[in-house]
């Protein structure tokens, strides 16, 4: 399946699931639970598709030369904030049990929390310190680069330190560099594609 189709399908899937979930529930708490579950489902599907397409290009434990889910991690949290981060963490916990179990529930849970917390921290830095538009209506190429770099560095560093601590990263520096590149490319690709698609989607909706 071409990358473009994965990105476009993913965007529409997330929009559909998010709107459908919120429409089903009117109470705020139920809305948040529905949104968390929608984000978790969406991220899990994207991760699984990426694994099918790029698993042969895995460099080391949890490190890919191209990691498109990183872009969706950030996108989900940019849009849904804390609820999105919780959804990503839940999906990452399930992914951890399936593919990257770290010998105990607690260690696998910490990995999942890193996956959900990294984009949330990046969101805080980008919005509060770099002045990036919180409504995401005026995203420039510079903003995309800034968000990609900030998130890529935070996520990669935390993951690799944790993997190294658990003896899952034999080549720390190399894995750090490759994971940074994979996250940077994946994030930039997703955000750039969304930026290009948004005007076209708006025209169709109007």
Q: Low-confidence segments, ≥5 residues, pLDDT <50? A: 20-26
Query: In angstroms, what is the radius of gyration?
Result: 16 Å
Q: Sheet bearing the most strands, described?
A: 2 strands, antiparallel
DSSP strand count = 2
Query: Strand portion, in percent?
Result: under 5%
Strand order of the largest sheet: 1-2
Name the assembly state: single chain
> Helix and strand string, N-terminal first?
HHEEHHHH
**Structural class by SSE content:** mainly alpha
Q: Total domains, how many?
A: 1
Mean pLDDT score, rounded?
79
- Tally of helical runs: 6
- In one word, what is the shape? globular
Explain the layout of strands and helices.
Blueprint: H1 3-24, H2 28-54, E1 58-60, E2 63-64, H3 69-99, H4 105-128, H5 141-165, H6 172-205
Antiparallel strand pairs: 1-2
Helix pairs in contact: 1-2, 1-6, 2-3, 3-4, 3-6, 4-5, 5-6
Q: Explain this structure to me?
A:
- The structure is a single chain.
- With 206 residues, the protein is mainly α.
- The chain has one domain.
- Helices cover 79% and strands 2% of the residues.
- It contains 6 helices and 2 strands.
- The protein has helices at residues 3-24, 28-54, 69-99, 105-128, 141-165, 172-205, and strands at 58-60, 63-64.
- A two-stranded antiparallel sheet has the order 1-2.
- α3 (69-99) crosses α6.
- The longest helix is centred in the C-terminal third of the chain and has 34 residues, at 172-205.
- It is globular and about 40 Å long.
- The protein starts with a helix and ends with a helix.
- Residues 20-26 have low confidence and may be disordered.
